[in-house]
Write a structure and sequence with these properties.
By secondary structure, the chain is of the alpha+beta class. It has helices at residues 2-13, 21-30, 44-54, 83-100, 142-145, 159-168, 172-176, 186-202, and strands at 38-41, 58-63, 76-80, 108-113, 119-128, 132-139, 150-154, 206-216, 221-223, 226-230. It has 2 domains: 2-113, ATP-grasp fold, A domain (Dna Ligase, domain 1), CATH 3.30.1490.20; 119-230, D-amino Acid Aminotransferase, Chain A, domain 1, CATH 3.30.470. Strands 5, 6, 7, 8, 9 and 10 form a 6-stranded antiparallel sheet that branches. A 4-stranded antiparallel sheet has the order 1-4-2-3, sandwiched between helices. Strand 8 and strand 9 form a beta hairpin. Helix 3 (44-54) crosses helix 4 and helix 6 (159-168) packs across helix 8 (186-202). The longest helix is centred in the middle third of the chain and has 18 residues, at 83-100. The chain binds adenosine-5'-diphosphate and magnesium ion.
Length: 231
């Protein structure tokens, strides 16, 4: 709670509403929400050095208060396998972003552990004007974007409600396991829902939160993108 309070007041002091991905992930970490290891680089050389430390493959992402949907502007490069690929991706990302918005303020580039591909889920929170914060859950990609296969609960959610949320989406069989696809770690998702519930209850100034996506494995889960917007 302490680190989150400090970060949120710093963001407000700077006159911002959107937390940077690094800030949103620091908040998640404090609330026990697992996140992929993420470091900030301001130069190509530093990016390559961090990638060597983190271990390949890595992901590079733009960090800019002016860019919310990073992949839409060519701001994300995944599966980079060596220092040369990292340096090349670094300059292409900067080029793409500048082409999209010449005035975008660039804070640097994130170097991130690449989470192995897996079933992607989404946990979100929005504020209902009448009922306060509500949590959202669904499977990532087409399930949420095309099929709108998502479910909501008013926060705070109990463990039982969190389990209900997970089991009531239509795509649930994909998590439960089918044929030779092993079951995903449902308990890890329950924990993320409960911790997100606590986070938004503790900090009513959070207007929107998006953990999109979270990779879920047979054991454990990892948030690879986190967005938090303040009121
Ligand atoms: P945005 O949502 O702002 O476009 P994301 O950070 O979600 O950007 O990245 C876009 C996609 O790239 C994600 O949905 C995910 O599929 C993939 N991705 C991003 N970061 C990672 C990572 N660390 N490990 C594995 N895949 C990732
Ligand atoms: Mg995302």
């Amino acid at each position: 709670m302490k680190e989150t309070l400090r970060l949120l007041s710093q963001v407000r002091q700077e006159g911002r509403k959107n937390l940077l991905e690094t800030e949103a992930k620091a908040v998640c970490r404090e609330y026990g929400i697992p996140v992929a290891r993420t470091e900030l680089a301001e130069t190509q050389e530093k990016a390559a050095k961090l990638a060597n430390e983190i271990g390949y493959p890595v992901v590079l992402k733009i960090v800019s208060p002016d860019i919310i949907h990073k992949s839409d502007v060519g701001g994300v490069a995944v599966n980079l396998k060596n220092a040369e690929e990292v340096k090349n991706a670094y300059s292409s990302i900067i080029k793409n972003v500048k082409k999209h918005n010449a005035k975008a303020k660039i804070k640097g580039i994130l170097v991130q552990e690449m989470a192995p591909p897996s079933t992607e889920v989404i946990v979100g929170a929005t504020k209902d004007p009448q009922f306060g914060p509500a949590l959202m859950f669904g499977l990532g990609g087409v399930f949420v974007e095309v099929l709108k296969d998502v479910t909501f609960r008013i926060a705070p959610v109990s463990e039982e409600e969190a389990r209900q949320m997970i089991s009531e989406v239509k795509a649930y069989p994909l998590l439960k396991g089918y044929r030779n696809t092993p079951p995903a770690d449902i308990d890890a998702i329950v924990k993320i829902l409960l911790n997100t519930s606590k986070l938004v209850m503790d900090h009513p100034e959070i207007k929107e939160l998006d953990l999109n996506p979270i990779m879920v494995y047979q054991k454990g889960a990892k948030t690879v993108d986190a967005r938090i917007i303040l009121e």
